[in-house]
Amino acid sequence: MTRDIGPETGPVLELGPGTGPFTRALLSRGVREEDLTLIESDPDFAALLKRRFPTARIFEMDAAGLRHLSLFHGPVVGAAVSGLPFRLISPRKTLAILEGVFANLRPGGALYQFTLGRRCPFDQSLLDRLDLEVTRVGHTFRNFPPATVYRVARIKTLGIYDWRFA
Questions:
Q1: ∠152-155-160 over CA atoms, to 5°?
Q2: What number is the average pLDDT over the span 66-75?
Q3: Closest CA to 22 of 121, 113, 96, 139
Q4: Which of 33, 105, 109, 130 would bridge 55 by S-S if both were Cys, CB 3.0 to 4.6 A apart?
Q5: CB neighbours (10 Å) of residue 143?
Q6: C-alpha 6 chain-centroid distance
Q7: Res. 115: pLDDT tops 60
Q8: Please, are residues 128 and 114 in contact by the beta-carbon 8 Å criterion?
Q9: Confidence class of residue 166 from pLDDT cuts 50, 70 and 90?
Q10: Is 147 helix (H, G, I), strand (E, B) or coil?
């Protein structure tokens, strides 16, 4: 889940950290605690995270609120990590969460989504609407059901105009 993320990534946004297993993995990979911004909606988990990770930025809020909240001065986040159960979240709320995440991600940044099962939790129509592409970057069969990690990033554009494809 965290193998592509390290100290060079810079600020990292984590959605739904719960008790902090991915947070601990990020720290063990060299991400500085003060570079972590954790978004947790459960008050008990948020209080636990504040005790476990005192120098991380912790927001007790629904991740859909990222759409209307500027966490940073511009898009500075190098990566976002999520274990949110998007298959159980409505398409409208999923759209709000993804818009908020990608508003905070700098160019080249990506969302790493952990999900149970082998299927991507995001519908292709939603990805097309936001100009996002998905790549499966990992899986484990030690879980039941098996778990998969997807990298979600902006589609890279050519940046030039080619009249042959107009």
A1: 160
A2: 80
A3: 113
A4: 33
A5: 12
A6: 15
A7: yes
A8: no
A9: low
A10: strand
Segment of 52-56, 66-70, 73-77, 160-164 carrying the highest mean pLDDT: 52-56
- In terms of Cβ atoms closer than 10 Å to its own Cβ (0-12, 13-18, 19+), residue 82 is buried
Q: Which tokens belong to 21?
A: 């297993």
| pTM of the full structure | 0.88
**pLDDT, average across residues 9-22:** 94
The order of strands in the sheet holding 36-40 is 57-60, 36-40, 12-15, 77-82, 105-116, 147-154, 132-140
The answer for residues whose C-beta is within 8 angstroms of residue 147's C-beta and 6 or more apart is 114, 115, 116, 117, 139, 140
Residues in the chain, how many? 166
